[in-house]
Amino acid sequence: MTACRRSQAGVSLLEMLLVVALIAAASLLAAAAFSGGLAGMELRSTAKEVAAELRFTRTRAITTGQAQRFVIDPAARAWSAPDGHAGEIPAELQVRFTGAREVQPGEGEGAVVFFNDGAATGGRIQLSREGAAWNVDVAWLTGEVTLARAEAAR
Q1: Which of 102, 107, 60, 67 is CA-nearest to residue 84?
Q2: Helix, strand, coil % in the chain, rounded to nearest 5
Q3: Closest CA to 62 of 150, 149, 143
Q4: Can you tell me whether residue 36 is helix, strand or coil?
Q5: Of 108, 119, 127, the residue nearest 143 (C-alpha)
Q6: CA atoms within 13 A on the CB side of 91
Q7: What does the alpha-carbon distance between residue 152 and residue 133 come to, in Å, rounded to a whole number?
Q8: In angstroms, how far is CA 45 from the centroid of its own chain?
Q9: Count of alpha carbons within 13 Å of 90, Cβ hemisphere only?
Q10: Chain segment 86-130, per-residue pLDDT in tens
Q11: In a 10 Å sphere around its CB, with 0-12 CB exposed, 13-18 middle and 19+ buried, how is residue 75 labelled?
């Protein structure tokens, strides 16, 4: 009698897990390269948060029928909005504000005032890090808040 040995064709579970781990690692590296890494994600996340709070302030002005103010202090790296909304900007990010001088609450602080019809005094908050930047713009006529990638001001 001859013993017949069959060869087992297929892939082991260990080989399968190794391939999945390699694909996951390559995907993470590619995502980090395309998004500017963790530093880029922190910059964009902070810009989105500031834009969201500006939109909230505009909405409060329209719904309450009263002017509302968003205040930012670049030196203290802090901002505040109506209804006790407040936040801080990470120390790694640079902050620049450009806006109407007439509505500034104090030396070094900036403010955007939204009116009950949705219009605003306008302004720009630029957040930057290592040459990358995001501009959060508020249109003075419509009060529209936009977020756009930009080059860091020098």
Answers
A1: 60
A2: 35, 30, 35
A3: 143
A4: coil
A5: 119
A6: 0
A7: 5
A8: 3
A9: 16
A10: 999 999 999 999 998 888 887 889 999 999 999 999 999 999 998
A11: exposed
What are the phi and psi torsion angles at 79 (to 5°)?
A: -140, 160
Token pair for residue 82? Answer: 């109506």
pLDDT digits (tens, 9 = 90+) for 12-61: 888 899 999 999 999 887 776 665 566 678 899 999 999 999 999 999 99
The first and second tokens of residue 140, run together, are: 């003075």
Instruction: Provide the pLDDT confidence category of residue 75 given band limits of 50, 70 and 90.
Output: very high
Q: Strands, DSSP E only, in the chain?
A: 68-73, 78-80, 86-88, 94-99, 110-114, 123-129, 132-138, 145-151
HEC string for 8-59: CCCCCHHHHHHHHHHHHHHHHHHHHHHHCHHHHHHHHHHHHHHHHHHHHHHH
| Residue 54 phi, psi dihedral angles, 5° rounding | -65, -40
Q: By three-state DSSP, how is residue 121 classified?
A: coil
pTM of the model: 0.74
